[in-house]
Specification:
Blueprint (H helix, E strand, L loop, with lengths): L29 E2 L3 E9 L8 E9 L9 E2 L19 H8 L4 E2 L8 E10 L3 E10 L2 E10 L9 E9 L6 E14 L11 E15 L10 E2 L3 E2 L8 E4 L4 E6 L7 E5 L3 H6 L18 E5 L8 E10 L4 E11 L9 E8 L6 E14 L7 E2 L2 H8 L4 E6 L29
Parallel strand pairs: 8-10, 19-21
Antiparallel strand pairs: 1-7, 2-4, 2-9, 3-5, 3-6, 3-12, 6-9, 7-8, 10-11, 11-13, 14-18, 15-20, 16-17, 17-20, 18-19, 21-22, 21-23
Length: 422
């Protein structure tokens, strides 16, 4: 799995990282903030386009009229469509399709915008961007597609549209790499509501494009094909949609950073101010079970994200990958707190489980990025937190039952941590 780290510290005016020994290096390489200028979802009558993804690389002649700067790496954790406020009806996307707002050829005078059009299935599936990074002159965008083959009483084809602000690039030649990872809900009959997915396939596409000194009218580069790539060794595991609820425990009152597991009245906590970490108790057989992740002390404006949940059947081990995004920008009013994530868990039957958190610490000079992995010293400090917890689970009528692979449910191809390129 990915190893990384964390930083933190900060006086009320100028914050620096608690663990970091020196400022982040000045570089264009690293993880970029995944900032959505607009996210919309609409019906898609183009049957021929089902299962396709189109990605345009351009500049916008006009600033989007909808929301600006919705960052997936923000504390609000708007990651998946059912948690995301879509811009209805997607004003800028509709104007682009109608031709009333024009795409421009990329130029150094405008931010580079990636327009993703994903027609991957119906309204029961989710296609969403999850990561953007840069290495040299190559940008990599990762999408995840979560779907099932269950029967539908009523459904319709949908197209997801995302306008992603990638920041300004200097004039020159560049490459765009698109990675699409698909996750298939397990055996469908009688189990459509069980959020147990297997890693199903990975597709990749590549596009060369140029950035001029100035943006100009003309045809923009478009990537229209992503091909399947060879799969790795199978893993007898399932993945959950990385859903969670967030809070921030005050610095003066919090559990030790790390992971905890048990049950609680989740609705009561969601209605509270969420400034204290809740107390978890041992679950009864019918109780919902949650992992609670308590992060290290963080500054205002820093953020945490649940990246993946992997449950390995034969070892009864559940691994949560958690990313920490921190930077060195000045804070005029810095309120420090410990981030809290409450993550619903599923199990493959009764038994003793190990719940583990693996931290991915990322650090930047300011919130515009790029974010780079923390030092080895910081990674070592994170490993010293209470990162594992054992949990005894009684028989659960809603447990996920491992089933043999079939043509409908191909052998899984992922390994823990393969849910990310970074």
């Amino acid at each position: 799995m990915r190893t990384a780290a964390l930083l933190i510290a900060g006086l009320s005016l100028l914050s620096a990282s608690v663990f970091a020994e020196e400022p982040a290096p000045a570089s264009t390489d690293g993880v970029l903030p995944l900032t959505l200028l607009e996210a919309s979802r609409s019906g898609d009558d183009n049957a021929a386009g089902k299962g396709s993804i189109e990605l345009a690389v351009a500049a916008l002649a006009e600033t989007p009229q909808g929301r600006s700067g919705l960052a997936i790496n923000s504390p609000d954790e708007m990651r998946f469509p059912y948690r995301m406020d879509f811009d209805a009806p997607g004003v800028t996307t509709a104007a682009l399709k109608a031709g009333t707002i024009k795409l421009l050829k990329p130029g150094a005078d405008h931010s580079l915008v990636l327009w993703v059009k994903a027609s991957m299935g119906d309204n029961y599936t989710y296609t969403v961007p999850v990561a953007l990074s840069r290495s040299g002159n190559t940008l990599t965008l990762v999408l995840e597609h979560w779907y099932d083959n269950g029967d539908r009483d009523k459904s319709y084809s949908v197209q997801y549209n995302y306008l992603i602000d990638s920041g300004k690039l200097a004039a020159g030649e560049y490459n765009l790499r698109l990675v699409v990872r698909s996750f298939l809900l397990g055996d469908q009959k009688g189990s459509v509501l069980k959020q147990a997915y297997r890693s199903n396939s990975t597709r990749e596409g590549a596009l060369k494009f140029s950035v001029g000194e100035t943006s100009a009218a003309g045809d923009v580069p478009v990537l229209k094909e992503a091909k399947a790539i060879p799969s790795g060794p199978a893993l007898d595991a399932f993945w959950q949609l990385p859903r969670c609820a967030k809070g921030a425990a005050r610095a003066e009152k919090h559990p030790n950073p790390g992971v905890y597991a048990g049950t609680l009245d989740i609705q009561a906590w969601l209605k509270s101010t969420r400034v204290e970490a809740p107390e978890l108790t041992a679950p009864a057989p019918a109780d919902p079970v949650y992992a609670m992740v308590v992060g290290p002390l963080m500054n205002s404006g820093d953020s945490i994200r649940l990246r993946s949940i992997c449950n390995i059947f034969d070892t009864k081990k559940i691994t949560l990958e958690v990313e920490l995004y921190q930077d060195d920008r000045p804070r005029l009013q810095n309120v420090r707190s410990h981030p809290v994530l409450l993550v619903p868990l599923q199990f493959s039957g009764a038994g003793t489980y190990t719940v583990e958190v693996q931290w991915i610490g990322l650090h930047a000079k300011d919130s515009s990025g790029p974010y780079v992995p923390e030092s080895d010293a910081v990674a070592a400090a994170l490993k010293k937190l209470e990162n594992t917890r054992e949990l005894v689970v009684a028989a659960d009528p809603n447990a996920v039952t491992p089933k043999p692979s079939s043509p409908r449910n191909p052998p899984p191809t992922a390994k823990p941590g393969a849910n990310s390129d970074f």
